[in-house]
Amino acid sequence: MSVHKSAKRITTQVLAEMKANGEPIAMLTAYDYSMATIVDQAGVDVILVGDSASNVMAGHETTLPITLDHMIYHASSVVRAAKRALVVVDLPFGTYQGNSKEALNSAIRIMKESGAHAVKLEGGHEVKESIERILTAGIPVMGHLGLTPQSIYKFGTYSVRAKEEMEAKQLLEDTKMLNAIGCFSIVFEKIPANLAKEASASIACPTIGIGAGNGCDGQVLVLHDMLGITQEFSPRFLRRYLDMGQQMNDAIQHYVQDVRTRDFPNDDEQY
Ligand code: KIV
């Protein structure tokens, strides 16, 4: 039987075994109990409580405004729902960069107050010390390289990263470094597919791609994007599995009409 089918709960060890066995890892975001229940029951291996909650749940333009308290609130709702999936939580902007003690304290707060299983943070060599310090507390860390949305004001655009040789070389070095210091997995966001493939093949820990092609060890999408709840965002890498925004709009319009015409509630729907 395949590794993920025989696992009652997905752990970081199960993910490593899945990579060793050539089994792709399915990861999706979730930020609340109801959605996370559906995602977990549908067989997703890893639920990411991403700081994309800043965009998707709170309507901010970037991921920068979300706070540690907000992330803990979303994460604890998801943890209550997840019976099988590994729950990974993003450390938000400003809670780990440049100060490894603060990074450790932020990660400990997430683990203690939400019950999550691991944290994710963005960056390579520049956050090495923070990652190492978090790892010393026994907290599993997922890395995140390529397009790192918390650095949007440095990049200036959300376009594909590491197309130039120097940035690609740095990404390969950071990948090997994150694997060597003990990250259990690394997200590659919006980088060329051949680079992601080469980097994935160069390390033992599993890589999870978003806009990084088919050579990664797993894939992640933002739930609200793949369900078609968010409609204005359509990058090339996004496959929409539903047009849920439209379906919800139709259903809600139908409800409004039923209320206005006094069709709802009918005799069977009252006491
Ligand atoms: O915050 C998020 O949703 C993410 C994914 C896009 C990987 O970091």
Word description of this protein:
The chain contains twelve helices and eight strands. By secondary structure, it is an alpha/beta fold. It folds into two domains: 3-240, TIM Barrel; 243-271, no CATH class. It has an eight-stranded parallel beta barrel, surrounded by six helices. β1, α3 and β2 (46-49) form a beta-alpha-beta unit. α9 (165-181) runs parallel beside α10. The radius of gyration is 20 Å and the shape is globular. The mean pLDDT is 97. The structure holds 3-methyl-2-oxobutanoic acid (KIV).
Can you give keywords for this protein?
8 strands; 271 residues; single chain; alpha/beta; globular; 2 domains; 13% strand; eight-stranded parallel beta barrel; binds 3-methyl-2-oxobutanoic acid; TIM Barrel
What's the helix and strand layout?
Layout: H1 3-6, H2 12-20, E1 25-29, H3 33-41, E2 46-49, H4 53-56, H5 68-81, E3 86-90, H6 100-114, E4 118-120, H7 128-136, E5 141-146, H8 152-155, H9 165-181, E6 185-189, H10 193-201, E7 207-210, E8 218-221, H11 223-226, H12 244-260
Helix pairs in contact: 3-5, 5-6, 6-7, 9-10
3-methyl-2-oxobutanoic acid binds next to strand 6.
